[in-house]
Sequence to fold (366 residues):
Amino acid sequence: MNQKSNPNLRIPGPVPIPEEILDLVGGQMINHRGPEYAEMLHKMTDNLKSVFFTKNDAYFITASGTGAMESAIANTIEENDNVLSIIIGVFGERFAEIAESYGGNVTRLNYDLGKAADLDDIRSNIRSINNLKAVIFTHNESSTGVTNKLEEICQIIHEESEALILVDAVSSAGGIPILVDEWGIDVVATASQKSWVAPPGIAMITVSKKAWERSKKIKTPKYYFDFQQYEDYLQIGQPPFTPSLSVMYALDFSLEKMLNESMIKVFKRHKDIADYTRKKAKEFNLEILPDEDVASNTVTSIKLPKNIDGVKFLSEVKNKFNVILGGGQKSLTGKIFRIGHMGWVEKEEIDESLIASNTIIRQITK
Ligand code: PMP
Fold:
């Protein structure tokens, strides 16, 4: 039994923060309207653009990932706009709800949980909607461990329409490749507590020229999430509102670290640990929920045997092994468990999680 004081936190975010970053989080406050902050903000903005391979604008917003998603909608959707929402899980449904709350006329394209979106369906749905203003979807659906084929989806949207492409990349960005300029993505939304290895509290977005044009044309009321606030203040090296400084310190460090390692290596590292997780899970005869070709490189969903009480399973894994796994959400509650492997993850942490899961499954099915 593992009696470490720090649990092996294997939920799909917030990810555990290494000591060197925790020290930064504990750093003293600075004047967010002073030169020190300006220097950090400009450097971080450049670094964020590099991570996304983009020349588009990029901003830091003090909010969780949902704030970044709301900013994408608030700046580009107005009352009665036709929006296609591709939904493969809980977070896709959330994006649709946000678009509806801003008056969007949302067509939902739903998939069974554990499946990725089908490219032909997307094409035919785009063709069937007149005056389509935006296509919104989740890149990596954390609730099912499925990654949509982002490049291919973007290509189809560009072939078939002039619609804006708004992507929830909360649990993929920084771990799975996103080539914003090459794939022509208008707004990408992500958040600090995922592959960025920082505490929760800072959302990040990129904004294309086309998204800017749309934001200037529409009349949707907005304030805190108005792109223009972030742009105007960036020009003077400031945030529009008091930022979560402690999280910014951590994120500054992580961004540098990722780029020093090189994004190619960061993505490869995520793929390697995901492959390792799936291989090990299969060795224990555990069944992965999604098909191999769409299984996520940041979170693995594993089916629980039918006769197992999912709540008891999670609590036994925690109490006996000090491993904290993600459970299933909504209709997958009690049916799957999830192992997060975003950020800096060691094979030993995966081994420990799978040994714990397998042992408890065998104990409670006896
Ligand atoms: N989208 C995805 C894919 C997510 O994984 C999450 C967080 N789990 C969110 C959106 C929402 O982010 P937050 O909880 O930071 O608002």
Notes: The domain at 8-16+262-365 is CATH 3.90.1150.10 (Aspartate Aminotransferase, domain 1). The chain has two domains: 8-16+262-365, 19-260.
